[in-house]
Each structure stands twice: as structure tokens, then as C-alpha cells.
Specification:
Elements (H helix, E strand, L loop, with lengths): L14 E5 L4 H12 L3 E5 L7 H6 L3 E3 L13 E4 L8 H9 L2 E4 H9 L3 E6 L4 H14 L5 E3 L11 E2 L5 E5 L14 E4 L7 H4 L2 H13 L6 E5 L3 H7 L5 E7 L5 E9 L2 E8 L2 E11 L2 H15 L4 H10 L8 E6 L2 E6 L4 H14 L5 E5 L4 H6 L1 H5 L7 E4 L17 H10 L4 E3 L3 H11 L5 E5 L5 H11 L6
Parallel strand pairs: 1-2, 1-4, 2-3, 4-5, 6-9, 6-10, 7-9, 10-11, 11-12, 12-13, 17-21, 18-19, 18-21, 19-20
Antiparallel strand pairs: 7-8, 13-14, 14-15, 16-17
Length: 471
């Protein structure tokens, strides 16, 4: 367990300034702090979709970074993991001696007052976290939750509940999840990613093991029984560990898995005994695994089986996850956050299963030069069954003058071409939109993929092909 090195903090009446407030997690945390009675302000380097909602709550938001934005009465400054030491507001806070903590530290602090539920993994965290929150809400438990994605069905990316649980997405970047001491939770999978932070894959697996070790001894950790590294990490846990599998031999097992129009129904077994049936309305085989993990976590926390089945069966997903943006003139446009090779493959497969198509287009915007460099060959091999892949410039959210940019979109397209993929490098998003709009035809499926601002291409295509749909 963590040894507390910081004194407790009373939020009611305190002024909290949040640097990088535009991220889903940070903006969600701002909502919770405001609900707890804090006076909240914040800044971000870019406009973001939720700024209006924050302002409506009385939160003062600046759309640039400047030391003058730091209120003189600020008692606490919270920064996102992407904020560099050179940020002028952060520097001003340190010069004043204002207490500073990272976003994950804040969540860890809030979790101390509740039974923590933390969902970790390279992929599927946002969906599964929101799924667990929806199941708990269906059961009437009214949890507090923080999800790193838009989740309108559960009241947004974050909400303060009056129930005993706090459900959070536990991110491995910057070892953020080591700020949490959960009672219940999951490790969905462990794959190579964030190697700019960890350098070696073994160090990443070790971090997941350290996360597993933080679970309360009387708690429950659920992990994939079909992911060797997730199993390895779970061995460090001091609590009960249960594994989930699809047509396997885990404690929790999905059997009789069947698909219709890309949506799945299956039977959930525990220790070989049938518990209940689930029918999902969100597409993709990968969501069978997410749902199984959510069911196991909810069951461990005492949620009744009826609420688990009803919650999973009514869950509508989160923003930018296989989101149908529009369909017009015979062209279907789907947007997704996929930014890792495994996510890309799963998303393409799920979209092709869910939507009729003649040809499949993918617009993939790489996210971070470091990830592109470390996973270059894996990315190049991720587009099987796609008719044309259009790749704009890398979205470099954390880049600075030291960023290594020798491997970018042009090199990725070259590697894709060597593997027989019909790839095209088009630098700007505007030019990408023009290219796809000029060449997509009736019956085509267009996927926009990436963790950056590639959704702008989806917006542009919706305006071109389905002007009646609000972009």
C-alpha cells in the first residue's frame, strides 16, 4: 500500500487550478471537484468540445497557457501527465510554493474515501470502465466514476455519486495507475506501448505487476486468461485473482458466442457453471472480453446477476469507439480512437462485421512519433482487408524540440506498401478529407482512426456526404 507523503486536502471552498483541463479525464475530475464544493479554474493549449459544459458549471477556462492564468488564491494545482516542466503556469505555481499534484494523484486521493474500482490494460480501458459504471448504476449503486472518454449514458466522463464506490480508468502511462489502491478491478491485457516512458517491455509488465500488488488483500483482481503478460502481472497480487476467457478455461468464460450483424450474444459461465446470458448492442468480438471482465468485477463487488445482464445488454458504448458518424449517398462514416496496431485490427474487423460495405477506407492518423517509431512494423501489418489507407501527419500531442521525428507517416506508408497495402501519405487533414470525398463511392465504408484530431476528417466527410446530419 502507498505510504502517504502528502497531507489530506479539503476541497470544499478551496480553489483548484487544473493545467491541461481539456482532456476527458481532467475535465471530468474538474466536474467532480466542483460538485465537492471546490472553486475550479483551468487552462488548455487547444479548444476542446467540453469547454462549454465546464463554463456552464462556473469553471473559468483559458484556451492557452500563461502564468497570469494561475489565480493568486489557488491552493492546489493539478496537472495532466502531458504537461511539461516548462509550462508557465506550472512554473509559477512552483515558484509560489503552491501544492502541485498530477491528475492520477488527485484520483488516488479521491479514491481513499471510497471503495476503489480500477480498470487497467493496454486496450479497452475506457469502454470497460464505463461499462462497469453503467452496471453499477443499473444496480442502483450510484457510484462516482471517471472515464477517459465521453460517456453520456452514465452522465458524462465523470460524475460524483453518493454510493460507496469510485470507478476509474487506470492508465499505465507515466505509471499513473500506481497512485491507486483499489479493492476491485481488472487487467484486460498487456502489450507493447508507451515505450517512450518505459523503454523496455519488461518494465511495462513490471509496472502492471506493481499495480496488481496495490489491490486490497480482501479484494478481487480480474485478468485475461488468454494474455500471457496480463497473467504474469496478476501473479504479484495479494488478493484473489480470477481469470476471464472467451471459449477457454478461465474462472469466467464466455461460451456459445454468436454474432449477428457484428453484435454478439454469449453465455457467461463461472467455474464451468452457467450464470447468465448476455446480448450486446455494441459491436466487436473484443467487447465480449470487455463485457466478461466487467461482469466478473461487478459480481465480485456484490452486484446482482440480473443487474449485470441488464446493464451489459443496455450499454451503448463511449465516444469515439466505433461511433457511426453518418451515412449518406451510400457512404458510411465511422470514427474510432484506435491508435495501437491491435486496436486498429479489432476496429476494422468489428466495423466490417457491423456495416455492409463494398470497399473499406481507413484514414489513420498516427499518435506520437515515439509510438510510430517503436511499433512501425506492427502498424504496417495492421490493415489487412482494407482497400485504401490514407495517412496524414503524426499527431504529436506531447512533442517538443527534442522529439525524434525521423520516423513518421511517410515512412509508415512506405512500410505498408512493402507489405502489399494500398497506402497513401497525405499530409494535412483538409487534403485527406478532399481526397476521400473525391474518391469514395456508393457502398464504401470509411473509418477514421486515431487518438488525435482525425475526427475532423469524419466531420468533413459528414458535411460532404450527409449534410442533414449534425457534424
Amino acid at each position: 500500500m502507498r505510504v502517504e507523503s502528502e497531507p489530506p486536502f479539503s476541497f470544499r471552498g478551496a480553489h483548484v487550478h487544473m493545467i491541461g483541463i481539456g482532456g476527458c479525464g481532467m475535465s471530468g475530475a474538474a466536474v467532480i471537484l466542483s460538485a465537492l464544493g471546490a472553486r475550479v479554474s483551468g487552462s488548455d493549449g487547444f479548444p476542446f468540445s467540453g469547454v462549454g459544459a465546464l463554463v456552464a458549471r462556473g469553471i473559468n477556462v483559458h484556451l492557452n497557457h500563461d502564468a497570469v492564468h494561475l489565480p493568486p488564491q489557488a491552493a492546489l494545482v493539478v496537472i495532466s501527465a502531458a504537461i511539461p516542466p516548462s509550462n508557465p503556469e506550472l512554473q509559477a505555481a512552483r515558484q509560489r510554493g503552491t501544492r502541485v499534484m498530477k491528475y492520477a494523484e488527485l484520483l488516488g486521493l479521491l479514491m481513499r474515501e471510497r471503495q476503489g474500482v480500477a480498470i487497467a490494460g493496454t486496450h479497452g480501458k475506457s469502454t470497460t470502465t464505463a461499462m462497469v459504471a453503467h452496471v453499477f448504476r443499473t444496480a442502483g449503486l450510484n457510484p462516482t466514476h471517471v472515464v477517459g472518454a465521453a460517456a453520456e449514458q452514465i452522465g458524462g466522463s465523470a460524475a460524483l455519486g453518493d454510493g460507496p464506490h469510485m470507478i476509474v480508468e487506470a492508465c499505465e502511462f507515466d505509471r499513473s495507475f500506481l497512485q491507486f489502491d483499489p479493492v476491485y478491478g481488472a487487467i484486460l491485457n498487456v502489450e507493447r506501448d508507451h515505450l517512450d516512458c518505459y523503454r523496455e517491455f519488461d518494465a511495462l509488465v513490471d509496472a502492471f505487476a506493481a499495480f496488481a500488488q496495490r489491490f486490497h488483500p480482501d479484494g478481487l483482481l480480474v485478468c485475461s486468461g488468454q494474455d500471457a503478460c496480463a497473467r504474469r502481472a496478476s501473479e504479484a497480487a495479494r488478493c484473489r485473482v480470477e481469470r476471464f476467457t472467451i471459449e477457454g478455461d478461465g474462472h469466467w468464460n464466455a461460451t456459445a458466442v454468436m454474432s449477428q450483424a457484428g453484435r454478439y450474444r454469449f453465455t457467461v459461465q463461472y467455474s464451468g457453471v452457467r450464470r447468465f446470458d448476455v446480448e450486446l448492442i455494441i459491436p466487436g468480438l473484443h467487447n465480449v472480453g470487455n463485457a466478461l471482465a466487467a461482469a466478473a468485477v461487478a459480481d465480485g463487488a456484490g452486484v446482482p446477476a440480473e443487474a449485470i445482464t441488464r446493464g451489459l445488454g443496455t450499454f451503448r458504448g463511449v465516444g469515439r469507439r466505433l461511433t457511426l458518424r453518418g451515412s449518406g449517398r451510400g457512404v458510411t462514416i465511422v470514427d474510432d480512437y484506435a491508435h495501437h496496431p491491435t486496436e486498429i485490427r479489432c476496429t476494422i474487423q468489428a466495423a466490417q462485421g457491423a456495416y455492409a460495405h463494398r470497399r473499406t477506407w481507413v484514414v489513420f492518423q498516427p499518435h506520437q512519433y515515439s509510438r510510430t517509431r517503436y511499433l512501425l512494423d506492427e502498424f504496417a501489418a495492421s490493415f489487412g482487408g482494407v482497400d485504401e489507407v490514407v495517412v496524414p501527419d503524426v499527431y504529436d500531442a506531447r512533442g517538443d524540440e527534442t522529439t525524434e521525428r525521423s520516423v513518421g507517416s511517410a515512412e509508415l506508408v512506405r512500410r505498408m506498401t512493402e507489405q502489399g497495402v494500398n497506402g497513401r501519405y497525405v499530409a494535412s487533414l483538409d487534403d485527406v478529407t478532399e481526397h476521400v470525398a473525391s474518391h469514395a463511392a456508393e457502398g464504401d465504408l470509411v473509418l477514421t482512426l486515431g487518438a488525435g484530431d482525425v475526427w475532423k476528417v469524419a466531420n468533413g466527410l459528414v458535411e460532404r456526404f450527409c449534410p442533414a446530419v449534425q457534424a
